[in-house]
Amino acid sequence: MIEGHGDDAYKYKAITINFSSNVYNRVDHSGLHRYLFRQMESIRTYPEPEPCSLEKELAEQLRLLPRQVCVTNGATEAIYLIAQTFRNRTSAVLMPTFSEYADACCLHGHKVISLYSLCHLPEEAGLVWLCNPNNPTGEVRNKEELLACINANLQRIFVIDQSYEFFTQRPLLGAAEAAALPNVILLHSMTKRFAVPGLRIGYATGCERLLREIRLQRMPWSVNQLAIEAGHYLLRSSSDYNVDISLLLNEKERLAQALLSIGGMEVWPSDTHYMLIRLRMGKASALKEYLATEHGILIRDASNFEGLDEHFFRIATQTPEENDKLIKCIAKWIYML
What we know:
single chain; seven-stranded mixed sheet; 337 residues; alpha/beta; four-stranded antiparallel sheet; Aspartate Aminotransferase, domain 1; Aspartate Aminotransferase, domain 2; 2 domains; 13 strands; 12 helices
């Protein structure tokens, strides 16, 4: 689904506050800007056919073998490579969630089954896809229950997208734990961790056998030179990108409670910095247009997630001042209904 994701600010003239993307943008990229400027001459030559140097550095940080890491052009490329690698299978997708899992599977001949629980997996499902923390709900699956499910279904491959792993305090499956399992592929996003969606840097971790099959499908030069250089810089400068997650999650709770106090909305519980909200009256698309055109605020209309309806929208917590403005503007819209 190329159309219908968040962060579609390009459709509007004057967006000043963006709640629609789950990327937390309150970071200082000045060091990265200076570093990439010094690397501009490198665009005169081809990048590595495979981004081996970045895979090696990631492996060292994660205490893995380089063969257990596969760097991709954003986590989305990894999703499509996995669907391509295991084409023509049956995939079960835990809903509601990121549409690209089902889209990638359909593109590569999978039969897609929608799940709403991991308790009873379809007998024919060879792959199970889930997002953890989940997009758009922010829910994190209980780690012990998830591991029990994985170990009870060794005949299936579990694709677990942990793109938002940095933005929760709930226990998650570690890269080394996944690599020790024969049937798990973890997806990770430097895009989300470091707020660089325009550079497209993601990676998969897992056992060597599974990643070898995936790597065979990856096109040469799929990760460009500046993205590789940025990846090296960000890994070596990660301390400059520390976000106080406790503070961010506390602000998320304050924002959720303030929205509940307005009335006319249901806020779904979330284990991370973004949240799913359902309007009791009015459509999310109408609220989005009002906020964008009247106040320069962008939210994510979530009605196109499978399992959700026209009343759902998603927001990601920003600064207290920006959150206060959102609260005030939503209250005004609801009072006008």
